[in-house]
Design a protein that fits this description.
The complex is a heterodimer.
Chain A: H1 11-19, H2 22-44, H3 49-65, H4 67-80, E1 84-88, H5 91-105, E2 109-112, H6 116-120, H7 123-129, E3 133-136, H8 139-146, H9 163-177, H10 189-206, E4 209-212, E5 216-218, E6 223-228, H11 232-238, E7 242-248, E8 252-253, H12 259-270, E9 278-283, E10 298-304, H13 308-312, H14 328-332, H15 334-339, H16 350-361, H17 366-370, H18 380-384, H19 391-404, E11 406-410, E12 413-417, H20 424-437, H21 440-452, H22 466-470, H23 482-489, H24 493-497
Parallel strand pairs in A: 1-10, 2-3, 2-4, 4-7, 5-8, 7-10
Antiparallel strand pairs in A: 5-6, 6-9, 11-12
Helix pairs in contact in A: 2-12, 3-12, 9-10, 16-19
Chain B: H1 3-14, H2 25-28, H3 42-55, E1 59-64, H4 68-79, E2 83-86, E3 101-104, H5 111-115, E4 119-122, E5 126-128, E6 133-136, E7 153-160, E8 164-165, H6 168-174, E9 181-184, E10 189-190, E11 198-199, E12 206-213
Parallel strand pairs in B: 1-12, 2-3, 2-4, 4-7, 5-8, 7-12
Antiparallel strand pairs in B: 5-6, 6-9, 10-11
Classes of the chains: A alpha/beta, B alpha/beta.
Bound molecules: iron/sulfur cluster (SF4).
Amino acid sequence: MSGTFVGMPAFPKAAHEAVHNATLRGNLRHATHTIRSKRAKAVAEVSDWAALREAGKQIKDHTLRHLDDYLVQLEESVTAAGGIVHWAADADEANRIVVELVKMTGETEVVKVKSMATQEIGLNEALEAEGIHAYETDLAELIVQLGKDRPSHILVPAIHRNRGEIRDIFAREMSEWGRPAPEGLTDTPAELAEAARLHLREKFLRAKVGVSGANFMVAETGTLVVVESEGNGRMCLTLPETLISVVGIEKIVPTWQDLEVFLQTLPRSSTAERMNPYTSTWTGTRDGGAGEGDGPQTFHLVLLDNGRTDTLADEVGRQALRCIRCSACLNVCPVYERAGGHAYGSVYPGPIGAILSPQLRGTGSEIDASLPYASTLCGACYEVCPVAIDIPEVLVHLRERVAEGGQATRGGNRVVLKPAKGHAAERAAMRAARWAFSHPGALRTGQRLASRTRRFHPRTLPGPGRAWSETRDLPAVPAEPFRDWWQRTQGGKEAEAK
Amino acid sequence: MSSRDVILGRVRRAIADVRQDDTPYEQAVDRSYLREHGARSVAETVDLLAENLADYRALVHHCDADGLAATIAGLLAERGSASVVVPAGLDEAWLAATEVTRVPDRLDNTPHELDAVDSVVTACAVAIAETGTLVLDGSPDQGRRRITLVPDHHICVVRVPDQVVSSVPQALERLDPARPLTWISGPSATSDIELDRVEGVHGPRTLEVVLVSGE
Ligand code: SF4
């Protein structure tokens, strides 16, 4: 598994395959609908939700506008508490730093807390290449790792697997990595979880190095925060002597008080719980902070850029950096629900992935250029987002970038992008649409013509449109153009009056 | 140039368009969200804590200060525990009624040694009613993080009402960020398999909370 999923086909092709997988669609539908309705209930319990959402947005926006100051402040406070801060401009540098730090401990095994940042940079593969085994300890990540698979959801990475598949993976693979699955393992969730507990416990108890990300970093105090459910996070943060945390620079909040906003909005948005089972905070090392012999002796913080500053440079797109990775937008997205997480070709699937990946990685590859189109622009993602990221706005902005080219920042430099290859047909269509919309007469005639001839419309487009329509069903043209219907019925009033 | 300089330089160029904004932080964020949700009496807040703890499948017990030792002894006996980890600063009286073998929380306890212990008894720093959360801050009566993590059975004593707050904002005010904090809302749980909730993957599978009133 690679952090960037090199060689992924563009979204339309990957999605095309995924929607024909009935098991996947069934699993996804069940999961997203379950979390979605639970979330709505959890949010309804909090009468000041709108105010919390606005405060979360403001905190993150303010931090991003002063990110240099807060990064320097964070570095000072982490150092004062006994931690060591490293800076990594890209994935390679971050991987090199972590590999070096692990080698210095003399260990060849690390236990890992689920973390998007380390997946993004492909850390497990980088460690493996140097003979260091990284064990994922989150149950879902374990399923993904044992299944030699890729995560497909931010919060429940193995959402695409059902219990039967999980049983088979455990029975087949666990012995390769350590303690084998118990004889006669059935597919009840309780038994599967127990098998994972036993398998991982021996690793936790002997682990000398833990690797994590963080949900938040508090600039004024140097405190890091991990929010989780299973206790594997606590294990990795507590038992090893050395802790290495790889964290994106956008995870900063200025003050301790700011956590009161996010510790209310994050659990309710992500797992639809009032509070997640475990939250751990740590400030420096066991001897540096007030911990008095608690936690790791050595703490390294690797601050990761890897495209974040390029994203920050985009005035419309920078709001994606407010994301607290709650995954609420995935669960409401009609496109995600059908296509699944793998089709997005990155560790960030769903609506947030569609705006974050092309910004972090640029739109140079086919998959990244196709991601801004992986949406219906229905707006549901914006509605649920606890930090009010206007995902549709960014999608449209990125579509324009892909289709038209234009100014962007890559690797810290201003560049002028050419229109992405393969988007010529869309560009032509956009231009035609713009012309038609500014010539109402032509639009009307065209629509009437389309209505009358609709029986003869092809399912796919001919010529340059074929690539586009191969993976999309063309919308059926209604029997009567909207404008005509409006004129005939006075906007539906007539029907109501009857 | 170091990567630190590279990144900070990129950040500064990226936000050149907004850098003039010097609204102080206190004014940049509208804090008109609530300090607590709904008006409750002290007793109602404690009831809400018990209710929300139970909702997340913690086992909740009530007693007064005089009955605490017997309650704890009873819980250990019911569980069939042969050994219990004890933080250095735990009130001696709390374990006065039980004969169970005590394992002191020491820096040189290995994780394997802790794994062989049946139960742990601790106090807490603060409990949050609205979310059903216990917060441990590593004070002497709570011990190191590891002791409430490795044994499978955690008994946590909450002094009511003075250790109970309504909400997350009120809890943060009481806590010291320099200390290692663990927030616990029910026992360890996972919903990773078809979203069926299963308790106890890696942390303690049983969480018992004793709400002790009066002193
Ligand atoms: S974009 Fe918003 S809703 Fe989606 S994961 Fe990020 S914070 Fe959650």
